[in-house]
Design a protein that fits this description.
By secondary structure, the chain is α/β, with parallel strands linked by helices. It has helices spanning about 20-30, 45-55, 65-90, 100-110, 115-125, 140-155, 165-185, 195-210, 215-220, and strands at about 5-10, 35-40, 95, 135-140, 190. The protein has a five-stranded parallel sheet with strand order 2-3-1-4-5, with helices on both faces. The radius of gyration is 17 Å and the shape is globular.
């Protein structure tokens, strides 16, 4: 593809399968587009990965909700300017595991800081940049939380900060994601996770190709 790129994000509560869907879509697109970038938040840059260690990978730190939000945006602003925007300017397809919607859901709703604060910081620090399309994976909250906790136990992962929260926290997060899908129907696509990961991926691919005819042509050339 040429010209400006396409910015695609994946959102959902922990355990929803968003990282798997990002990987599967990356595999689908890798040989079909000129440049593909898979990245994540917090992370994506050396600074972002350090923030991830502070905010996500340490359940022992007592981080105030306001500090958590500030750290997320410090990582996001760096990520945007160092990797995402340059890639999009080169015409790349960018697949990002979480972006600003995650802060709306987790800090705005989950931590009860309010979404207005999140959007204000996003305008100030990130210029209000939004993805072209956001796939929000909607899954039963209890099921997702059980998956997330099992993943931590089976992999000895330290990424347990959010999973330590109670069910009411995740209900607020899930509700915020559904509200985002309702408020931004052109950008946010709510994907109900009911079948296998492959069936979910098929729905994502179908919606993506319908939304971007140029990408459809690129896929046809790649087959």
């Amino acid at each position: 593809m040429s010209g400006s790129g396409i910015f695609i994000t994946f959102e959902g509560v922990d355990g929803s399968g968003k990282s798997t869907q990002q990987r599967l879509l990356g595999e689908f697109l890798r040989e079909r587009v000129g440049e593909l970038l898979l990245t994540r938040e917090p992370g994506g840059t050396p600074l972002g990965e350090r923030v991830r260690e502070l905010v996500v990978a340490s359940g022992k730190l007592e981080i105030a909700p306001e500090s958590e939000l500030a750290l997320m945006f410090a990582a996001r602003a760096q990520h945007l300017r160092e990797r995402i925007l340059p890639a999009l300017q080169r015409g790349a397809v960018v697949l990002c595991d979480r972006f600003v919607d995650a802060s709306v859901a987790y800090q705005g709703a989950g931590r009860e800081l309010g979404e207005e604060r999140v959007w204000e910081l996003h305008r100030l620090l990130c210029g209000g940049v939004l993805p072209d399309v956001t796939f929000i994976l909607d899954v039963d909250t209890q099921q997702a939380l059980a998956r997330a906790r099992e993943r931590i136990r089976s992999s000895a992962s330290a990424e347990s900060r959010f999973e330590q929260q109670g069910e009411r926290f995740f209900e607020r997060v899930a509700g915020a994601y559904r509200a985002l899908a309702g408020a931004h129907p052109r950008r946010c696509r709510l994907i109900e996770v009911r079948g296998t990961p492959q069936e979910t991926q098929q729905e994502i691919q179908q919606q993506l190709l319908e939304a971007f005819p140029a990408l459809q042509r690129a896929v046809v050339r790649g087959e």
